[in-house]
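Class, study these two lines:
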Amino acid sequence: MVGRVVVYNGEGACEKSFNLLKKSLENCLCPEAHPVSCITPEDIKKGGLSHDCAAVVFGGGYDKGFIHALGSEGIQEIRSFVLGGGKYFGFCAGGYFGCDYIEFDKGGPLEVCGKRDLCFYPGKCIGPVVPHFEYDTHRGADAVPIRVHDIPQLTSGFTCKLYVNGGGKFMPYHDSSGCKIDIIASYCNLPNQPAAIIKSEIGAKGGRAILTGCHPEFCAFELDSSDSYLQRILDDLKQNETSRKLVFRVLLKLASLKLRSSHL
């Protein structure tokens, strides 16, 4: 597969998350096969995903902003793109956005609950999985252990710690057994080890969605070492940096994207 990889940049996207995500994609993807650029909600609504695009990527932020900026027209453009064989990546807020239903801080002051229209995952994304989340800070951030399942490029039971801040867990509906869903990784430290990363096959033309509650795209050495909330987890994240990069590259491969020759 060749084609552009576009990263959403508009209402709902966190600037720091966008920058880290775009840089990680540029560092990993073959630039001749997959030039990386940003895409605005206006571009999406005008059909910008239909022009030699391989994947659309949504990173951290807040999905109500995505919904407000895109409207039903933009959301349908994304869904049609994936049904036509395109790939969707959703990291953290982008992961919530890709589910059928979300429950964020249910019963708390930041509560956001409701149906979502992309419906790439037949279930709920429920979070945050780490307490004390605050928008625009790292107060609720942690280095959370995940276990990767049955991926050819990784040893069975491969574990590492990844940055999590506000992300959710993926909980399937009871009647979703007929859907083509793979659990890529689970949270090791949560009861019943729920899904942290899932892959969903969409439609009959090779469409695929990869949704995460964690941030495998965040390079530990790019995070702000002067931030008091990050200081308590940075050593853990840096020790897991090689593993993090490996997990991120595997996710790109699962979407049939071509990596730089020095990578997987």
In short: The chain has a mean pLDDT of 94. The chain has one domain: 4-129+167-186+196-220+241-255. The longest strand covers residues 195-202. Residues 63-83 form the longest helix (21 residues).
